[in-house]
Amino acid sequence: MDSILFPVLLTLKISFLSTFFVFFIGIFISYILAKVEFRGRNILEIIVTLPMVLPPTVLGYLLALQLGKNGIIGSLFYKLTGSGILFTWEAGVIASFIVSLPLMVKTTTAAISAVDKELEHVSYTLGNTKLGTALLITLPLSKKGIIAGMVLSFARSVGEFGATLMVAGNMPGKTNTMSLSIYQAFQTGQYDLANVLVITLILMSFLSIYVTGKMADKLNS
Predict the structure, then answer these.
(1) For residue 124, what are the CA distances in angstroms to 12, 35, 135, 143?
(2) 220 has pLDDT over 70
(3) Cα angle 33-35-41, degrees, rounded to a multiple of 5
(4) Are 185 and 193 in contact (CB under 8 A)?
(5) Is residue 221 over pLDDT 70?
(6) Are 171 and 92 contacting, i.e. CB atoms less than 8 angstroms apart?
(7) By C-alpha distance, which of 20, 23, 88, 60 is closest to 161?
(8) Closest to 199 (Cα-Cα) out of 178, 176, 218, 220
């Protein structure tokens, strides 16, 4: 039973944490891309989008370099905690965050860009600052895109495999997420376990998409 329960719980923990960070950082980046004109905007958009097109091995390798003790993130984590971050579940959170962030940014940027600029202009004439207008007008009117981006990012985190394998490893009882456990079960001929995990993963992904559709219908009604 633990061979099923642990991967499910770990996957949910990693996915929820990843989505939490994706929500705030994704909205911040999306607002900048949608509303702020600056030199290097296209470069930022390309950097955020790259994880969607890079092979998982390349992305995992680049992450491993940064999460090692000589990397920027790894060295900072080591100074704060006294231990490394590679081959831990925390590294899995970072990998899931990186691969799911583009979905949040793409969806939310489109939603923010679609907000009627006249409504924002009225808010400015009433004395609201840019921050106040963003919080009171722009983001609430973009909520459908934000919710869709969150759910899609969560679903992407649930199914993450390649980058997680390289930075978190596949250690039973420590870093074996559902996708990694399915791979391990297939490799070792444990097809019954693989079938249960596959069905569970499909149901979780299906539920995420179903929830997105229901939320969209409720917001449109």
Answers:
(1) 41, 14, 13, 21
(2) no
(3) 35
(4) yes
(5) no
(6) no
(7) 60
(8) 178
Task: Give the closest residue to 24 by CA, choosing from 195, 146, 185.
Answer: 146
Q: Which backbone phi and psi does 40 adopt, to 5 degrees?
A: 95, 5
- Model confidence over 90-104: pLDDT tens digits? 999 999 999 999 999
Model's pTM, two decimal places?
0.90
- Read off the CATH number of the domain in which 47 is found: 1.10.3720.10
Using CA atoms, how far apart are residues 144 and 147, in angstroms rounded to an integer?
A: 5
- For 89, the domain range is 1-219
Confidence at 184, pLDDT banded by 50, 70, 90: very high
3-state secondary structure string, the chain?
CHHHHHHHHHHHHHHHHHHHHHHHHHHHHHHHHHHCCCCCHHHHHHHHHHHHHCCHHHHHHHHHHHHCCCCHHHHHHHHHHCCCCCCCHHHHHHHHHHHHHHHHHHHHHHHHHCCCHHHHHHHHHCCCCHHHHHHHHHHHHCHHHHHHHHHHHHHHHHCCCHHHHHHHCCCCCCCCCHHHHHHHHHHCCCHHHHHHHHHHHHHHHHHHHHHHHHHHHHHHC
User: Into how many domains does the chain fold?
Assistant: 1
pLDDT tens digits, residue range 151-181?
889 989 998 998 999 999 988 889 999 999 9
| CB atoms near residue 29 (< 10 Å) | 21
